[in-house]
């Protein structure tokens, strides 16, 4: 498995696979072929179908000088997020490179291994890690520390998450794009409780936090992927809610990020964290699973409870489709972040009460089920905006 830094990337929204990944591809190309002065970028699959709403064209034009974008909706490619960059010196073709944007801002060059990334962790499944920890009498945090030093980077991660949250709940107005979606985080945060349910205020706060960060992402601000831009509101909502509730220390938060990072990394390694590849279960589902493991850790759950919390959260996101309206990471994404955060807390709570020994389904099993389910989902429900809510929304618009 790669470094946990790959799960927590700091960058600008709204999409790790549609903005961060293509930007990284463009930066790679520029560095490798610095003599090019003109570019044509071809976008395929989901990048073509939802690239406008995800600002893929805007980020590429911003990164590559003298750049033309061609949206190719027809050509079939191996990976759903494929782009081809052609670099020219005046009118002479210098080089053509095909990239796959595989989620979380990572790219793979066609025909090559991911050159930039190297395996840091030798074990790829939760079961294997669990066995190793028992054998060595180690904790999961000690396991992470034995392979990489992350504390300083994670302090920065927490700061960026917090900044996005504060900024998100301070702003009013509408989000960029033609949907004219109203920002709602501030309204939620300051709303008076409308019900007598005793945790109404707590839940409203968690949702407001998730909205705040997801709205910042939708407007192209700086966020932390955890594990993707589209799902970036889930982890901060849980982290800062628990900070207020339990006075968590920075050390606890850093260690909690390590645990949640291992969960996200296992999903990224054995299944996918890309909505275009496996639907929203891979994005918000994974974020919710990571946040559930974080909450279980903060609430003093042991390793089995942490696994159970992560398993429950992912299991009950299975089948979640990716159908962003008009390709914007707004509807259903923002609301989905709020629900993903609530589900994370509920999953941790359920895991704490259940006896882990009664668990019949392991975290690894749910991860492989998620991949299987994702591969079975129709193309129209995997970040193409051709099915689901994206389709019915368009039909409604056409009728009106
Ligand atoms: S629906 Fe989910 S996976 Fe799809 S763009 Fe929105 S957050 Fe990402």
What does this structure look like?
This protein is of the alpha+beta class. It folds into 2 domains: 13-109, 2-Layer Sandwich (60s Ribosomal Protein L30, Chain: A); 126-399, Orthogonal Bundle (2-methylcitrate dehydratase PrpD), CATH 1.10.4100. It has 16 helices and 7 strands. It has a 5-stranded mixed β-sheet with strand order 3-2-4-5-6. It has a two-stranded antiparallel sheet with strand order 1-7. A hairpin with a 2-residue loop joins strand 5 (92-103) and strand 6. The mean pLDDT is 95. Bound molecules: iron/sulfur cluster. Iron/sulfur cluster is lined by residues 230-231, 275, 280, 283-284, 322, 324, 329, 332-333, 336, 383. Iron/sulfur cluster (SF4) binds next to helix 14.
